[in-house]
């Protein structure tokens, strides 16, 4: 399934279609132009390393926690700005068109940019005069990139430290409310790359401080979109090669008017983020969606749940094979009879041939004897959440919330088979998901089908 909900195309899929003439052009130019451009760009990137070190070398830790000033900072800033522009120029970004007026740090301490569609998006740091960015702590250990982050005095977040996000929120607030003492902070609130056809759900981090923000729109104006790096589509090397093979890549950066939050938005970052997302989507002329990444999986909102944009049946089958459950095994102690494949297919609205092998045994393992004396075996919260996670890719917390809403807390505790049947077959919001997600995909044709872009298919990935 490639839909992003409501019949709209998935924002995580990018299909690049090249005509025969375009393909020939890319192969001819790419053979010479792309390697030369990439080699020169990497050379310039390494030249920025000593200037980045000049900014922070020998400064005490306490000094690095405040805005850096002085001749070293001025030289570092000017040099890295020039080298950054030269690097993008060498990669083919010959023009950066700017529309609108960038607000001062007093007017808008925070900048939010969208759509985030490629690893080339940091080019907007240039018209924004190298604002502070938010990055992963792990990037500090990457050569050159780590030095540039220290030069930038970036706000760092660790995915392995539970307290890290709280520290980041506090640091963003401290800098955003410094009355212009710190440079502006730049966020890509979508948090990952999309195909630019819709805006993903904005994460609330940029909006927690409740200060005015300035939205920034990014548009790549070439007729052939070679820059997009989505979850499914051309990979990193292919994107670099295709973009570097174009004679010129034009970027337009548009500064929208400063968004002043109302009193309700100041205390509700989620509302603030949603309203800014809708305003930016309207300016771009694309939909604002509830799609987002949870872990390494793209999901969309359906009622109380977040569900995967693609069927999860292959993941379920892997779990069944790994556990070696047997179809038709007896129900756990306290249950009566067996749960047959035909019964399960009827419950889920599946034609019998499409009932996945082993699926009914999976349900058997999850239904327990608790409450069996009050109407048969019941499905506990853990089993319910496991079903949603395996079949729909739903986060555990979402499943627990819906379990309580469906009456799973009892008494008696758990959902009966009848309640689960009503949920999967008759619920207006969720029944269609089970019908769609449990149907195995049509078998692939044996005849080879050429890729839309004429190149090898890329592996899927997340930002």
Question: Which labels suit this protein?
Answer:
463 residues, 3-stranded antiparallel beta sheet, 15 helices, 12 strands
Account of the 3D structure:
The protein is 38% helix and 11% strand. The chain has helices at 20-56, 61-64, 71-90, 145-152, 164-176, 236-245, 263-267, 269-284, 313-323, 341-347, 359-366, 381-392, 396-405, 417-425, 431-437, and strands at residues 95-99, 110-114, 132-136, 155-157, 185-187, 213-220, 250-255, 292-294, 297-302, 305-308, 378-379, 415-416. The model is unreliable at 320-339, 347-358 and 443-463 (pLDDT under 50). The protein is globular. Strands 1-7-6-2-5-3-4 form a 7-stranded mixed sheet, covered by helices on one side. Strands 8-9-10 form a 3-stranded antiparallel sheet. The protein has a two-stranded antiparallel sheet with strand order 11-12. It is built from 15 helices and 12 strands. It is an alpha/beta fold and 463 residues long. Helix 1 crosses helix 4.
Structural class: alpha/beta
- Give the CA-based shape: globular
Taking all residues together, what is the mean pLDDT?
A: 80
Strand residue content: 5-15%
Give the number of DSSP strands: 12
Rg calc: 26 Å
Tally of alpha and pi helices: 15
**Distance, first to last CA:** 21 Å
**Strand count, sense and closure of the main sheet?**
7 strands, mixed
Task: Enumerate the spans where pLDDT stays under 50 for 5 or more consecutive residues.
Answer: 320-339, 347-358, 443-463
Task: Report the order of strands and helices.
Answer: HHHEEEHEHEEHEHHEEEHHHEHHEHH
Widest sheet, order of strands: 1-7-6-2-5-3-4
Helical coverage, percent range: 25-40%
């Amino acid at each position: 399934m490639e839909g992003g909900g409501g019949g709209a195309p998935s924002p995580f899929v990018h299909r690049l279609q090249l005509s025969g003439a375009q393909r020939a052009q890319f192969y001819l130019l790419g053979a010479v132009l792309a390697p030369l451009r990439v080699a020169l760009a990497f050379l310039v990137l390494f030249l920025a390393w000593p200037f980045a070190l000049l900014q922070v070398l020998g400064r005490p830790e306490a000094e690095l926690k405040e805005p850096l000033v002085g001749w070293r900072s001025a030289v570092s800033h000017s040099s890295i700005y020039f080298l950054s522009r030269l690097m993008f120029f060498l990669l083919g970004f010959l023009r950066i068109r700017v529309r609108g007026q960038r607000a001062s740090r007093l007017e808008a301490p925070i900048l939010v940019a969208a759509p985030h569609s490629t690893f080339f998006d940091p080019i907007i740091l240039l018209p924004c005069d190298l604002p502070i960015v938010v990055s992963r702590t792990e990037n500090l250990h990457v050569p050159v990139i780590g030095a540039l982050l220290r030069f930038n005095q970036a706000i760092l977040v660790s995915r392995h430290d539970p307290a890290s996000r709280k520290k980041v929120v506090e640091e963003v607030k401290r800098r955003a409310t410094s009355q212009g003492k710190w440079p502006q902070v730049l966020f890509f609130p979508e948090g990952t790359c999309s195909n630019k056809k819709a805006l993903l759900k904005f994460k609330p981090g940029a909006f927690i401080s409740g200060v005015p923000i300035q939205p920034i729109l990014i548009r790549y104006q070439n007729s052939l979109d070679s820059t997009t790096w989505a979850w499914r589509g051309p990979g990193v090397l292919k994107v670099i090669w295709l973009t570097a093979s174009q004679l010129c890549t034009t970027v337009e950066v548009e500064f929208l008017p400063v968004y002043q939050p109302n009193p309700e938005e100041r205390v509700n970052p989620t509302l603030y983020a949603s309203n800014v997302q809708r305003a930016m989507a309207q300016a771009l002329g694309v939909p604002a969606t509830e799609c987002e990444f949870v872990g390494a999986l793209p999901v969309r909102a359906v009622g109380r749940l977040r569900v995967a944009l693609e069927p999860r049946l292959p993941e379920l089958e892997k779990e069944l094979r790994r556990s070696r459950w047997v179809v038709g095994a007896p129900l756990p102690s306290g249950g009566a009879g067996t749960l047959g494949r035909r019964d399960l297919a009827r419950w889920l609205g599946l034609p019998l041939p499409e009932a996945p092998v082993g699926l009914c045994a999976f349900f058997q393992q999850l239904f327990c004897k608790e409450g069996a004396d009050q109407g048969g075996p019941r499905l506990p919260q853990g089993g319910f959440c496991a079903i949603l996670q395996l079949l729909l890719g739903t986060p555990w917390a979402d499943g627990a919330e819906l379990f309580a809403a469906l009456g799973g807390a009892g008494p008696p505790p758990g959902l009966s088979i009848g309640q689960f049947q009503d949920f999967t077959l008759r619920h207006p919001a969720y029944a269609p998901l089970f019908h769609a997600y449990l149907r195995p995909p049509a078998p692939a044709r044996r005849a080879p089908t050429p890729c839309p872009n004429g190149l090898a298919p890329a592996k899927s990935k997340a930002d």
